[in-house]
Amino acid sequence: MNAPPAANKLAGKTALVTGSTQGIGLAIARSLASANMRIAVHGLATRAAGEAVAESLKRDGAMEARFFEADLRDPASIEVMMREVDAWGAIDVLVNNAGIQKTASLRELERDTWDAIIGVNLSAAFHTMRIALPGMAQRGFGRVVNVASVHGLVASVRKAPYVAAKHGLIGLSRVAALEYATAGSKASGGVTVNCICPGWTETELILPQIAERATALGVDRDAAIASLLSEKQPTQRTSDPSEIGNLALWLCNPAAHNVTGACIPVDGGWTAQ
Ligand code: NAD
Question: Is 45 helix (H, G, I), strand (E, B) or coil?
Fold first, then answer.
């Protein structure tokens, strides 16, 4: 077990990060681990793979780390997972990060695709927040960080369920921020609910779109990424997942008690246009 430095107020607090077996969720878990937190790892992965991630987080500085399973399309599984995590440690930080995406026009979209994307990207956050927030309020400290997207703020074609889910996630977060605004105090850190809205970030999620663009233009991966960036992201640079992780860690700091109901774009100027 790693020992906490005295000045670190997050040390020993428990964080559940959904979808933390890879990508942005894993990067957020690594940032929270560096603050000596206890990390509940979650994702669609084998038990061996999930436990390997938990072990790596301990090497990153996590006081403890453990893998929890739940398919977020199933509310009953979410409730079981929330009870299991709570028995391991009351949830101080909840990061709703897990997400899926599929590009198709409204005309082509199938009902199952709609249900799955809304289920994982939006409804799951309602189920976890509903359960976790009252305990945070009781203890006077809590952080909910919801990983939305630029697509929570603006639309793109061929992404109807994803855009609907991310807009919904921002609305849900704003309501929760208001309902819990008076919980806790400046000294205790309060309870805040915020969204991070990434633009193009290099993870497995965007691989199908890169492949589709590469095929359409007959170019390699780098040229396909440059083409995607040139349409929407003014800096022409992708983000690294660790940059989202650093921002999530900052939002968890007790000194960020008055940052609530916010949507913070990490999108190279996409939504400034
Ligand atoms: P990723 O595909 O690398 O990781 C997704 C994670 O969610 C995985 O751990 C996976 O196991 C988990 N997950 C997926 N379906 C699940 C289910 N049914 N039940 C439980 N867990 C499930 O994707 P990522 O890029 O790291 O995405 C993380 C978040 O960031 C998502 O909410 C995504 O919408 C958002 N986002 C990503 C980008 C980007 O460019 N990568 C941009 C904006 C927003």
Answer: coil
Tell me, rounded to whole angstroms, the distance of Cα 229 from its chain centroid: 22
Ligand 1: distance of its center to the CA of 186 in Å? 33
What would the two tokens of residue 55 be?
């072990």
**Active site residues per annotation:** 162
Domain boundaries, the chain: 14-199+239-266, 202-238
Q: Which tokens in the block code for residue 251?
A: 């939002």
Residue with tokens 């700091």: 253
| CB of 198 sitting under 6 A from ligand 1 | yes
Separation CA 192–CA 29 (nearest Å): 18
Side chain identity, residue 148: A
Is CATH 3.40.1350.10 the classification given to domain 14-199+239-266?
no
Burial class (CB in 10 A: 0-12, 13-18, 19+), 52: middle
Pocket lining: 233 vs ligand 1, CB cutoff 6 Å: no
Which mutation among 100, 145, 237, 271 tests ligand 1's pocket best, with the greatest number of atoms within 8 A of CB? 100
Give mean pLDDT, residues 223-235. Answer: 98
Query: What tens digit of pLDDT does each residue of 136-192 get?
Result: 999 999 999 999 999 999 999 999 999 999 999 999 999 999 999 999 999 999 999
Give the dihedral sign, CA 5/10/16/18: negative
Q: Which two tokens stand for residue 101?
A: 């995406």
How does pLDDT run across 77-109, given as a tens digit for each residue? 999 999 999 999 999 999 999 999 999 999 999
Q: Alpha helices, DSSP H only, in the chain?
A: 23-34, 47-60, 75-88, 111-118, 124-139, 160-179, 207-217, 221-232, 241-252
- pTM, two decimal places: 0.97
Dihedral sign (CA 55, 60, 64, 68): negative
